[in-house]
Structures are given as structure tokens and as C-alpha cells.
Design goal:
Length: 231
């Protein structure tokens, strides 16, 4: 089975969202899972120009060249049995390079009308850890969550769980909260254990149905975030 993928979505090396991902990864390692940590900032790709090249079958991207890494990264997302997206909130949204990758997935969006569609239980589980400096704001994560939802849908993936972390301007703000750090490690351990329990013959790039239980309701980006004691 392919390894779980942890996509580090911030331009800031060893910043807050990298640290969140590292805590999750520690938990997964404790559960015996090897994962792939991928810092998106290390991979160059051009922004979508809306050239229209992917609009008609076979929905190819005209920017997919050997030196452009977007297709490879999107393929890693497609192949992984589980993906953690660890990202900061920048201006109520996702950081520019991550958004550029999302825009490059337009060929999947263009192709989905020709697709049979997938039941919710068949969606690849994606975990989203979003970090914000502000401690308030009902809509702090709303835009990012909507963007992720529509990015993932044509990839046959969906957000299973989120950690919406507020009041984290700096890595120090996170490290000063041992309960939050411990909860992030436990989160990784929990998903590592679930993956370890999967049969090895799970279909390529897909997780077996037991990984998806219990089924979570549709995401409501305007719903309240973590209770105050978890922030
Ligand atoms: C360009 C930029 C824009 C930001 N915009 C917001 C924002 O809209 N709301 C917020 O709460 N924090 C905002 N922040 C703070 C970051 O979300 C916060 O510091 C985050 O933990 C940084 O994570 P990182 O170190 O992984 O990049 C912004 C920070 C930067 C650098």
C-alpha cells in the first residue's frame, strides 16, 4: 500500500503548520506507520492561466511538463490512502502556492462531468489541519474549507476530520499548549492505527470501507470551531 501523505502547505519552513504536521507524524510513527512528508514550497509549478486546454476530453493540462511538478504532486494525493493537509490561514484563505496547486487541479474539475461519481463512503479520507493567528472570527476557516471541499471532490476525496487551530501566531504559541500538542499526536496515532488495521490488498489509492466509519456529516464551514479549551 502507498504511504499516507502529509502535505506541508505553508511557505514557512518549520513554522506553525509544519509543527502541527510533525506532531501528527510522530503519532503515526508511534502507531507503526511510515508516511511521506512533502513540503509544497520545495516544488515549482506554474499557475493556471485558464487557457481552456483542459476543458474538453482528454482534459490534459497544457502546463504539465517535466520541470513542472504540479501533476506529480496531484498524483501523490491521488495515490495516498490518507492525506493530511496542514496549512496556515493567510488573509482568510490558503497560502498562494497551495492555492496555485489547487488551481492546477482544474483538469480534474473539467473532467468530472464525464465521471460516474462516487458515493461518500468511497471517498479517500483527507484530514485538514488549519492554523490561524487570530483567536476570534466565526468565518476564520470558512473560505479555506470551501476551497478544499471543491478541490478534493473531483479527486474522489473528502475531508473526514479537521483541526481548526486558532491563536497560533508563532510556533511558540503552539508549543506552550501541551494539551493541544498531545491531542495532535493522538490524532496521528489514531489514524495510524486505523491504517495499520487495513487489509494489505486494499484497492490502489483507496482505503477499505472500515477506514471511513463513522461517516461524518457534510462539512459546514460556518459551524463553530474547536471548543475554547481546545484552542
Ligand atoms: C501573509 C499572512 C496572512 C495572514 N492572514 C491571517 C488571517 O487572515 N487570519 C489569521 O487569523 N491569521 C493570519 N495570519 C497568521 C497565520 O495564520 C499564523 O501565524 C499561522 O500560524 C502561520 O502558520 P505557518 O507558520 O505555518 O505559516 C497571516 C500570516 C501571514 C504571514
Amino acid at each position: 500500500m502507498n504511504r499516507p501523505l502529509v502535505l506541508l502547505c505553508s511557505p514557512h519552513p518549520n513554522g506553525v503548520s509544519d509543527t502541527v504536521a510533525a506532531l501528527f507524524a510522530q503519532g503515526m510513527a508511534d502507531a507503526g506507520q511510515q508516511l511521506r512528508l512533502l513540503p509544497l514550497r520545495d516544488y515549482a509549478f506554474a499557475p493556471c492561466t485558464n487557457c481552456g486546454g483542459c476543458a474538453a476530453p482528454p482534459h490534459r493540462c497544457t502546463l504539465d511538463t517535466a520541470n513542472d511538478k504540479a501533476a506529480q504532486i496531484l498524483q501523490l494525493i491521488l495515490d495516498a490512502p490518507l492525506v493530511l493537509l496542514s496549512s496556515p490561514i493567510y488573509f482568510y484563505s490558503l497560502p498562494a502556492h497551495f492555492k496555485a496547486l489547487i488551481d492546477r487541479s482544474q483538469r480534474f474539475w473539467a473532467g468530472q462531468a464525464h465521471d460516474a461519481g462516487h458515493a461518500a463512503a468511497q471517498l479517500k479520507p483527507v484530514l485538514a489541519a488549519l492554523c490561524a493567528g487570530r483567536s476570534r472570527g466565526n468565518k476564520l476557516f470558512a473560505g479555506a474549507l470551501l476551497t478544499l471541499k471543491y478541490f478534493l471532490a473531483p479527486l474522489h476525496a473528502g475531508i473526514r476530520e479537521t483541526r481548526l487551530l486558532r491563536g497560533l501566531e508563532t510556533t511558540q504559541d503552539l508549543l506552550e499548549r501541551p494539551a493541544v500538542c498531545g491531542a495532535l499526536r493522538s490524532w496521528g496515532h489514531d489514524w495510524g492505527s486505523r491504517l495499520a488495521a487495513l487489509p494489505h490488498e486494499a484497492p490502489h489509492g483507496q482505503a477499505a470501507p472500515d477506514l471511513f466509519a463513522p461517516h461524518l456529516p457534510e462539512l459546514d464551514p460556518s459551524a463553530p470551531d474547536l471548543p475554547p479549551q481546545d484552542r
